[in-house]
């Protein structure tokens, strides 16, 4: 039994925080897991910037409503789901993911949740499980699944390396250079062919 585990941002949809950085005019918010491997540190830093600028969940959700999947992403996902089971494993939050899942045809997603005050201020976040992508892949393997994983960032490397087959997709030159043993692809056709061969 195979199951494909995909990252969300950078793989199927544009990076939410980069879109919000552009919309809000706060360039510091462009920093993502491609730049900062420590997700906890990155999120606390982001929340500090939001607080400083008086921005909350409503403003981020307004930006997310305007984000469309990367061209070809939904078709890729549809083709993949015809072949095998697919789970999106993301470090994003349920409060961000909803509108994007609708545009992708409601695939299964495992992600985290935000702690939001009544006035809409994001006061914290709750990770579903520590090292969520790697832990989820190991849990799926423990119930009899062979996993195939793909992602673009530092926080995807654990699940990619722990899987039967793993691929980088639209990653950075630095991550590709640091992980020469992981096949890297730039188009959905290439990724689909690689996954198909691994099934």
Automatic annotation (TrEMBL):
It is an enzyme of class 3 (hydrolase). It comes from Roseburia lenta. It catalyses: O-phospho-D-serine + H2O = D-serine + phosphate; O-phospho-L-serine + H2O = L-serine + phosphate. Belongs to the HAD-like hydrolase superfamily. SerB family. Keywords: Amino-acid biosynthesis, Hydrolase, Magnesium, Metal-binding, Serine biosynthesis. The keyword Transmembrane does not apply. This is phosphoserine phosphatase. Its cofactor is Mg(2+). Pathway: Amino-acid biosynthesis; L-serine biosynthesis; L-serine from 3-phospho-D-glycerate: step 3/3. NCBIfam families: HAD-SF-IB, HSK-PSP, PRK13582.1. It comes from the Bacteria. Its EC number is 3.1.3.3. Pfam families: HAD (PF12710).
